[in-house]
Amino acid sequence: MRTGIKVGLLASVAILVAAAFGGWKYWQFRQQVVVERLAMDGEPGKQLAHAIMDKMYGKEAYDSEAECWSVEQKASKSKPSFTYCMQPIALDKAQISGQHQLYLFATNIAHDFDHDFEAVDEGWGGAFVVDAETLEPIAGKKLLPVVNDSRNDIGSAKLMQLSKDGVLGWLVVGSFQKREMPEVPQIFIVKDKKIIDASGNLYGSDSAYYSSEYELDATKTDAGFYPLRVKIKNREEKTIASFNFRFDKKSNKYLCADQACHDRKGMPEYDESSEAGEQETETPPPANANEALFNDNTKLSDADLKDILGAINATYVVKDQKTWGFVTPQCHTPFPLNATIPDDAKADQKFIWIEGGDSCTSGNTENSVWLFIRGEDGHLRSNLGVPAKKIIVTEEHHDGYNDIRLSGNGFCEAIWRWDGNQYQHLKNIATQPGGCDSK
Q: Which tens digit of pLDDT belongs to each residue from 167-179?
C-alpha cells in the first residue's frame, strides 16, 4: 500500500490561535474559506481600514491628531454619557464560497478617566463586515462591550473560522485586574448579519504567571460549530491544564463541554509570594527531545526520533534553565520545534507535522514546516521541509492525496502535490499582483 496523505486525514490537525497573540497560526481545511490578514501600516490595508472607519463612524468623527474616530456612549440610569475614540486594530480579507469580504475590528484607545461610574470592567470594541469591492456594510456594531478594565487598547483581534459552513468570529483577550483575571477571552461571531457575543462561560488563565492557547478542532464537523479547547501554559510554554468548550446553538454561546471544565479541574494555583524567588517556581527544561517536541505526553520511539531529527539535522540541547531547544551544525542558538500528530494517525503515528525554527533555519519567515510520512519499511521520511508560516490542506486531491498550500511573509502561496510517491512543488499563486515577483 502506498504511503501518503489520504483525503481528509490531516483535517484532524487543530486550528491554533496563540494566547496573547505573540504570533498566531491557524490551519484551514475548507477550500471555500480563505482568510488573509492585511497589515494596516501600509497599503492597501491602511487605506481600506480608514475608509471603513469613515463609513461606519462618519468622516466628521475623525480626529487627525489622535488618529481615531469619536463615538458617544449615550447616558443611561447607571452611567453618564461618554465619548470614546476608536482605532482599527485588525483587518482581514475573507473569501467565503467565492464572496470577498473585509472584517475590521476596532477598540478605544487609552484615556484619562476621571468620571465617577462603576463599570470599570468594560472597554469598547467595534466590529464590522463589509463587501470587499464596494465597502457596503454587511454587519456591524459601533460599540461592543469588551471586558478590559484598563480601558486601554486590548491588543489584537484574531479572526477564526468557527464552523464548517464559514461562520467567522474574532477572538479578543482583555483583562479584569479588579478581580485578578489577567486573561478574559471573548468571541464575537458574525451570524445572520449581526455581531453576537458568543463568549458564554469561556475563560482563560487566571494568573499573570500563566498564558492560554485557544485551539479549534476542525474535524468535529458534526457539531456545526467547531469545539474549542483552552490550554493553560507556563512560562516555558508547557501545557499544564486544558479545558473543553462546545458551541450551544440555542444560546449561540460557547459553554463548558464537561464537568472538568465547570470545575476548572487542574487549573494551577499560583502563589505570588514565590514570584520573588523564581528559581523555586521555574519548570525545568524538557528532559529529552520527546518532551521538547510534544506537550501532551506523546512519545516517539528512539528509531522515529532518529528519523525525524536526522532529516532536520537537529540535536536537542539544554544550555541552562532558560536556554534550551534544538540546534544544527549551522544554527547554534537553540530554537523551538513542535510536533503534531493528527488524531486519526495517533495509533500508528503514520503522519507527523513538525514546525518551528528561527531566522537562522528559516530566513525572514522565521518558521519552517516538515511533514513526515511512515513508509512501508516502518521509517518516517520527510515529504516537506520548507520555510512557511501558514498551511492549508485543501480539498483538492490527486491520486488520492490532498494538495497542500504554503505561504510565508509575502503575497505568494506555493502549491505542493502528491506525485504518486512524494510531495512535489507544483506552482506558485500570487494572492496580490506581483506577489510572486510577477512570475
A: 999 999 877 655 5
- CB of 91 within 8 A of CB of 26? no
- Report the 10 Å Cβ neighbour count for 280: 9
Q: Which residues of 381-399 are buried (b: 16+ CB within 10 A; e: fewer)?
A: ebbbeebbbbbbbeeebee
The grid coordinates listed for 387 are: 520555510
Note whether 369 and 355 are within 8 A (CB): yes
Alpha carbon distance 125, 105 (integer Å): 7
Tell me the Cα Rg of the chain.
Answer: 23
CA 122 – CA 150 distance, rounded (Å)? 8
**Which residues, other chains included, contact 136 with Cβ-Cβ below 8 Å and sequence gap of 6+?**
130
d(CA 63, CA 363): 40
Residue pair 335/360 in contact (Cβ under 8 Å)? The answer is: yes
Q: Retrieve residue 166's grid coordinates.
A: 464559514
Q: Name residue, grid cell 486544558.
A: 242
Task: Please state, as a whole number, how many other Cβ atoms lie within 10 Å of the Cβ of residue 279.
Answer: 8
Alpha-carbon span 290 to 165, nearest angstrom = 37
What does pLDDT average to over the chain? 80
Q: What is the pTM of this model?
A: 0.57
- Convert the pLDDT of each residue in 93-144 to its tens digit: 998 878 899 999 998 875 444 443 344 446 788 999 999 999 999 999 998 8
Q: Which among 435, 339, 338, 393 is positioned nearest to 11, based on CA atoms?
A: 393
Please name the amino acid found at residue 257. A
Please confirm whether the linkage preceding 185 is cis (ω < 30° from 0): no
Nearest to 188 by CA among 197, 179, 200: 197
3-state secondary structure of 245: strand
Q: How far apart are CA 28 and CA 389, in angstroms?
A: 12
Q: Looking at residue 124, what is its pLDDT?
A: 84
String of DSSP letters for 174-200 = EEEGGGTEEEEEEEEEEETTEEEE--T
